[in-house]
């Protein structure tokens, strides 16, 4: 069986490794030489998804991942009092890994396998030819910026948060560092995500109109914000920040002709909870199970699997994305209007064991509980 993957991003590499583990040949086509992701971007992987990666995709060395067993949610008006608190005794909630560490692990593993071939697209005619190519049993597009994406997958539900995310890493004194912290500030959420005893990733999402109130949102302004909201770390240095625009996107139709859209092509969500990559992992799990079912029944794998995949995932992905959007908008609205009401609500929820359990399960497994 031969599969064509278009794009060489993190999700495409993860899917490629999953397929190769099933003895499927993968031909990965890409447009530009991709740089190894930089050090400041991190991924939060849910406990359930990490188990899936370790068992079905690739073994991740324990030195590369950092376990989080508590999540504290605060409001910038009072960073000493948690408005929500999630934890599980003696069990990780999720784990943090650097983007570039996971990227290098996957690409190095794939290069060693003779069932994997990476090919640079040198001619734009590739995209028209691939639509009628009989060489591949499946064609899966993971690149949202190529010709196929703009021509055949343009019907999307898009929400522009009119915001920019700033990401950096702070270096600090050694500390027991297993609690993730999210602070909802006037202009957007600020997250502290531990990656070791001496390093913590910081991500701040700020409204663009707030940035315009400054001459520019500089490294100095970002460092000032971190220091104002930091009540935990003795910081030694702060890395230079990186930025990226924030949008959510949901594709209306998952496949067109002989091509299936996948990963960020299907859904991008505001990184409020770091669930974009986790959604893609759950999609990979569903796709893998469909392949296994066909194999067990002795059925050929053809384009009908695209429809089956859409039927099993589309509604769940849409509801999950909408729920994350609601959480973001609620806290954003709450900062201005609902504080007296929401404080009572959060006090109730914080002491409700059933809510805590369901919230943890939602973050861990999405709606596939």
From TrEMBL:
One of its GO terms (cellular component) is membrane. SUPFAM superfamilies: FAD/NAD(P)-binding domain. Pfam families: SE. GO terms for molecular function: flavin adenine dinucleotide binding; squalene monooxygenase activity. InterPro entries: FAD/NAD-bd_sf (IPR036188), Squalene_epoxidase (IPR013698), UbiH/COQ6_monooxygenase (IPR051205). Residues 138-353 form the Squalene epoxidase domain. PANTHER family: UBIQUINONE BIOSYNTHESIS MONOOXYGENASE COQ6, MITOCHONDRIAL. This is Squalene epoxidase domain-containing protein. It comes from marine metagenome.
């Amino acid at each position: 069986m031969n599969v064509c993957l278009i794009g060489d991003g993190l999700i495409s590499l993860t899917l490629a490794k999953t397929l190769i583990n099933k003895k499927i040949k993968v031909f990965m086509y890409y447009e530009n030489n991709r740089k190894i992701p930089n050090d400041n971007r991190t991924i939060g992987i849910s406990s359930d998804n990490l188990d899936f990666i370790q068992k079905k995709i690739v073994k991740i060395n324990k030195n590369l991942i950092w376990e989080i067993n508590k999540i504290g949610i605060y409001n910038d008006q009072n960073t000493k009092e948690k408005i929500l608190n999630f934890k599980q005794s003696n069990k990780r909630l999720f784990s943090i890994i650097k983007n570039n560490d996971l990227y290098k692990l996957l690409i190095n593993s794939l290069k060693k396998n003779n069932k994997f071939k990476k090919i640079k697209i040198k001619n734009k005619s590739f995209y028209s030819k691939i639509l009628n190519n009989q060489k591949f049993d499946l064609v899966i597009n993971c690149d949202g910026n190529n010709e196929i994406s703009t021509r055949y997958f343009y019907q999307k539900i898009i929400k522009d948060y009119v915001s920019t995310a700033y990401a950096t890493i702070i270096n600090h004194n050694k500390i027991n560092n297993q609690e993730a912290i999210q602070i909802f500030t006037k202009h957007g959420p600020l997250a502290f995500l531990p990656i070791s005893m001496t390093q913590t990733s910081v991500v701040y999402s700020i409204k663009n109109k707030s940035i315009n109130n400054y001459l520019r949102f500089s490294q100095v302004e970002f460092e000032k914000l971190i220091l104002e909201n930091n009540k935990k770390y003795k910081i030694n240095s702060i890395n230079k920040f990186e930025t990226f625009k924030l949008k959510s996107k949901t594709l209306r139709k998952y496949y067109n002709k002989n091509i299936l859209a996948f990963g960020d092509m299907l859904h991008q969500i505001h990184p409020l909870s770091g669930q974009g990559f986790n959604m893609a992992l759950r999609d990979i799990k569903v796709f893998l199970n469909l392949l296994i079912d066909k194999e067990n029944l002795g059925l050929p794998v053809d384009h009908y699997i695209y429809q089956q995949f859409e039927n099993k995932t589309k509604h769940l992905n849409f509801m999950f994305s909408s729920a994350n959007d609601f959480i973001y908008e609620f806290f954003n609205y709450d900062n201005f209007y609902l504080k007296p009401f929401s404080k009572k609500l959060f006090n109730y929820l914080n002491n409700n064991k059933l809510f805590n359990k369901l919230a943890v399960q939602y973050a861990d497994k999405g709606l596939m509980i």
